[in-house]
Write a structure and sequence with these properties.
Shape: elongated
Order of helices and strands: HHEEHHHHEHHHEHEEH
Number of strands: 6
Largest sheet: 4 strands, antiparallel
Structural class: alpha+beta
Radius of gyration: 29 Å
Helix content: 40-55%
């Protein structure tokens, strides 16, 4: 199912610090099933009827032509499973792949497999899926215009700009069981001892690398980067936004354990440059267009479920 967020504020990880990496936009991922149909058409001698020019001929298998466009479809179908990395090895692999497809398709025809109900059902599904992905690709492309992308960027910027942000570091001593009073007391004692060392002049980041029980903090000296008040648990945010730049907190207890934090900087949030987030905005716009298209089709359709009682009308 297609389920991206429809809120402009969710378009970039820079704005909302989303943990997942942005995915590269891919408008027409149809090769997996399209190659299934394409090879059968090739085996039957019809694949070249709509071939665009120029489309170099690469090989023939029992008279069936393999063109450059076929290699492109096969490469998309194989995706990351391609064993070869150099261009020559990749081409040889694709030609061999298509050769096997054509030969096996011919063998399947000889066994009358295309005439079976099971195969016809699979082909109908493959055709519908390829058509679905093709039309969704068109909807996506039409939505990704410069004007539309700048509008999404401006809307997100208005929603996210001007919010106070704090840049802080922290040192955490974990308490895995909140009901374990002995463990909580031990963690509290550790954080108090650490604060005393900081007060005596030891470097916060160096202590974080040595002491913190936050795995990422050991790598970057407890650096949390910039965050808004809502992005941290309330007990942590309350202290972070109260302190001034350069100040170190007293012990802070949260659901994760005991912390000490240092405020490195404060600022008002500014949006990232448009070009830096353009690809993420394109992905958002494309998926939003797909959702709206499918939603309209469903609204206009008569959909009946016969495997369970009808839902009562509202």
């Amino acid at each position: 199912m297609i389920s991206p967020s429809s809120s402009p504020a969710s378009i970039t990880s820079d704005f909302l610090r989303q943990p997942q990496a942005p995915q590269r936009r891919r408008f027409a991922p149809i090769a997996g099933l399209a190659v299934f149909s394409a090879v059968f058409l090739a085996a039957s001698g019809f694949a070249r009827a709509q071939a665009p020019a120029p489309d170099p001929l690469i090989a023939r298998v029992n008279g069936v032509e393999i063109h450059q466009s076929d290699l492109a479809i096969a490469e998309e179908d194989i995706g990351r499973d391609m064993p070869a990395s150099d261009e020559a090895g990749k081409r040889d692999y694709l030609v061999n792949y298509l050769t096997d497809l054509i030969l096996i398709a011919k063998a399947a025809e000889a066994k009358k497999i295309p005439d079976t109900p099971e195969f016809k059902a699979r082909m109908a599904f493959a055709r519908n899926k390829a058509l679905m992905e093709a039309v969704l690709a068109e909807e996506s492309k039409s939505a990704v215009t410069d004007a539309a992308l700048h509008k999404i960027y401006e809307d997100a910027s208005k929603q996210n700009s001007g919010q106070p942000e704090v840049h802080a570091r922290h040192i955490l001593f974990r308490v895995n069981d909140p009901n374990d009073k002995a463990a909580s007391k031990a963690a509290e004692d550790k954080v108090k001892a650490t604060i005393e060392r900081i007060k005596k002049g030891e470097d916060f980041a160096t202590l974080a690398k040595a002491l913190t029980e936050d795995p990422s903090g050991k790598q970057d000296g407890g650096d949390l980067g910039y965050f808004t008040r809502e992005q941290m648990v309330p007990e942590f945010s309350e202290v972070a936004f109260r302190l001034e730049k350069g100040q170190v907190s007293e012990p802070i207890k949260t659901q994760f354990g005991w912390h000490v934090l240092k405020v490195e900087d404060k600022r008002l949030r500014e949006p990232p440059p448009f070009e830096k987030v353009r690809e993420e905005i394109e992905n958002f716009a494309a998926r939003k267009a797909q959702v709206e298209f499918v939603t309209k089709l469903r609204a206009d359709a008569k959909i009946e479920r016969l495997d369970k009682p009808a839902e009562p009308k509202k």
